[in-house]
């Protein structure tokens, strides 16, 4: 028996899929099946009950899984205490929300390359719900997403908080500020997609029995949202830090409103596994970069 077989078995159970485990471990489904079969044969047990759509642990399989989990945790501890930075190699598939792309992602990638020169990072940009599904499905290794959530499947740590504001072109004629809920609905509102906090909150707070739901236009692209607001299409709701340049240049202005928006909190999330040491190291680096980035922009962050 070797550690690789235990790792394969661990991921098959965690992801409830031989195919997803193969994607996660950068191998093929037949190779994963062979690893598990060989492990069962060597141990002289049947560890998994294979159904058409589900995989269930047998009584012996549960015991084996507990040991596999402990072996992986011990390996992580060893790597953190012993391994040198330049010993980390391979590919990390990183998902990120576009707000992070527009603020400090480039600095993070630069520092990560300096610190871990043998490591490659592939970037996927999408909305948080999609990125979380990809993490749990083994298609991503880690992600910068809205959170943290109480989710036993993922390790999560808070990265940063962004204040949300209403913005518009200075040329957009609005009612007296602070804008009432009724005044907000006089213009289209542009914000993030339907499964995100800004959209769900605005729809809930601004809908009325008389006029129905507010006019909310959504887009996955932060740059598109900002461009529509700059062109005078309506009000946009985005993090202040992400549009500090547009505000400073006078292309957007903050619109005070009676409706208070809570901060967007972002977290770094990743799954456990044999590559956990490098993911922990990258998570720590991301927290450092995010902290510096938000601190440097704090004065502008509070100025109209």
TrEMBL record:
Under InterPro entries, the record lists:
LysR_HTH_N, LysR_subst-bd, WH-like_DNA-bd_sf, WH_DNA-bd_sf
Annotated keywords: DNA-binding, Transcription, Transcription regulation
Q: Where are the transmembrane segments?
A: none
Q: Respond yes or no to whether keyword Cytoplasm is given for this record.
A: no
Whether Lipid biosynthesis counts among this entry's keywords is no
Residue ranges constituting the HTH lysR-type domain according to the UniProt record: 1-58
- Give the protein family: Belongs to the LysR transcriptional regulatory family.
Name of the protein this chain belongs to: HTH-type transcriptional regulator GltR
What is the organism field in this record?
Cupriavidus numazuensis
Which taxonomic lineage is given here?
A: Bacteria, Pseudomonadati, Pseudomonadota, Betaproteobacteria, Burkholderiales
